[in-house]
Design goal:
alpha/beta
Length: 505
């Protein structure tokens, strides 16, 4: 990748077009937001600052910060017609090293923080050796597996916006920032968790393809900090020109996507841990070696186009997200090498049980050893994760985590062996075919689709998660169908009784 492109990524160099900054400032003005001070903390070429000065006659002080001296020269030139009337400061500085607390103390209020901070993630910057990072990469202090398997990753815009909100506490201040919609929800979740209060909280979806030529779900997040203690509620609009939105709020610690459906089906929420719970598929992080296709009897081909003769002891038919989300599954030609039957199991036993398989993984040890996740450290060589007794049950119900539909699949054994899944899939392990079919019938109802639709944000990278799936109580669902007269016919024809369900679990 060229250094020019790296710089564009690192510093979020997708300049906001004046057409959009003008619309946003006009939107704020029409909502009776009249700032005395305007801050753009990553101002670039200054489109937001210029639009703010053109829109808000109330502005007395204006501050623009950016790390690029060249862009600041452009900004200074653009706003020159206003400098005789407004106290302006355009400063070259690193956002993460700037003394925001002292700066805010000297500014007239109300304050408006506005802008479009970089949308790149900290791991994305790490891949290009970028330096435009906060000092602490795991800035929300995730612990354990959360910190090492994904939740420690964050957008730079997320860190910038949260830093501004923390510094704006105690001030009469508004914040209006462009960001990914997933980031906006994370920020509101942070605010909910850390006792922020907003008397104005709105999300306006924007057409990122039109304005930035990128395929990202993006929005304008607009909040006003409030000292009064009240739960965060947010109005969500399809576009910045819309006049009516949908209300979203926090319930049970989650930002609910559809309050109407939440209220309708909240009695099905799982309040207790049960043995019947959704699990993630196997994590191996080396598809080139661990995933194979059958080429002929006893022979398999990997992604390196190598044909290998292997025993069947450690090979299991496998399905991926695309298999679960698309058409009917008639045949399976993909296999996974499952090197352990439980996490931490010694793998050297493979040498005596399946010498050809042992020779194959030994020959590819360098690739397996290159797996960068910390979870493989201090574990047996060739380890995998997300494996246990549940992996090897013959009957399962599975769903894709990535595709934008709620589609459960009933999966039985294939050619006499249990089917396994990669870690883009989730599944319930069932004790019998009868149990699997009964639960599958329950999960295939509109009730379940509505229940999950209350919690799912479809623009997320992985809309369906383990956390969401495990919110539904299968027992309460079975009980609902047994008691509700509207579903009596369905229950009598397809579902087992409550007593039968409990004995299965």
């Amino acid at each position: 990748m060229s250094s020019e492109k790296n710089n564009k990524i690192e510093f979020g160099d997708w300049q906001t077009p004046p057409e959009l900054t003008g619309k946003i400032c006009q939107l704020l003005f029409e909502q009776n937001i009249f700032p005395a001070s305007v801050i753009e903390p990553t101002c670039g070429r200054g489109s937001f600052i210029l639009s703010a000065l053109e829109t808000f006659p109330s502005v007395k002080y204006c501050l623009g910060i950016d790390i690029s001296g060249q862009y600041l020269a452009d900004t200074t030139e653009k706003i020159s017609p206003f400098t005789s009337k407004v106290d302006t400061k355009i400063i070259q500085a690193d956002f993460f090293a700037f003394p925001w607390d002292k700066q805010l103390e000297s500014m007239p209020e109300p304050i408006l923080v506005i802008g479009n901070p970089p949308w790149v993630t900290n791991s994305g910057l790490g891949s290009i050796s970028g330096k435009n990072l906060p000092q602490k990469s795991n800035f929300q202090n995730h612990k354990g597996l959360d910190a090492i398997t994904g939740k420690g990753n964050f957008d730079i815009s997320e860190s910038i916006i949260i830093t501004m909100l923390e510094n704006l506490k105690g001030h009469n201040a508004y914040l209006a920032m462009l960001c990914k919609t997933s980031v906006a929800r994370k920020i509101l979740h942070y605010g909910h968790k850390n006792h922020f209060y907003f008397d104005l909280c709105k999300i306006y979806n924007i057409d990122s393809k039109k304005y930035f030529d990128v395929a990202v779900d993006a929005c304008l997040l607009c909040v006003h900090l409030e000292e009064q203690r009240q739960p965060i509620q947010c109005e969500i609009y399809n576009d910045i020109s819309d006049s009516s939105g949908v209300l979203a709020s926090f319930k049970n610690g989650r930002f609910i996507a559809n309050m109407q459906l939440y209220e309708k089906w909240k009695h099905l929420f799982e309040n207790e841990k049960t043995s019947l719970r959704w699990r993630s598929g196997i994590k191996h992080d080396c598809a080139k070696i661990m995933e194979l296709h059958k080429s002929r009897d006893g022979y398999y081909k990997n992604a390196l186009n190598e044909e290998i003769q292997l025993e069947g002891d450690y090979l299991f038919p496998m399905l991926k997200s695309s298999d679960l989300a698309n058409g009917e599954i008639k045949t399976i030609n993909r296999y996974m090498l499952v090197s352990q039957s439980f996490v931490g199991e010694p793998t050297d036993r493979i040498e005596s049980c399946a010498p050809k398989t042992w020779q194959y993984i030994q020959q590819n040890a360098k690739l397996l050893d290159k797996r960068i996740s910390i979870i493989y450290k201090n574990n047996p060589k060739f380890s995998i994760f997300g494996v246990g007794d549940y992996t090897f049950s013959d009957w399962k119900i599975a769903i894709s985590g990535f595709y934008k539909n709620i589609r459960f699949r009933l999966i039985g054994p294939y050619e006499g062996k249990p089917v396994v899944f990669d870690d883009t899939c989730y599944f319930l392990s069932c004790k019998s075919e009868e149990q699997a079919k009964a639960i599958y019938d329950l999960l295939s109802t509109d009730v379940v689709k509505e229940f999950y639709s209350a919690y799912i944000w479809w623009d997320a990278k992985r809309p369906i998660t383990l956390e969401i799936l495990n919110m539904l109580s299968i027992n309460k669902l079975a009980d609902f169908f047994e008691k509700d007269d509207n579903y009596a016919g369905f229950e009598n024809s397809k579902l087992c009784t409550k007593q039968e369900q409990l004995t299965m679990f």
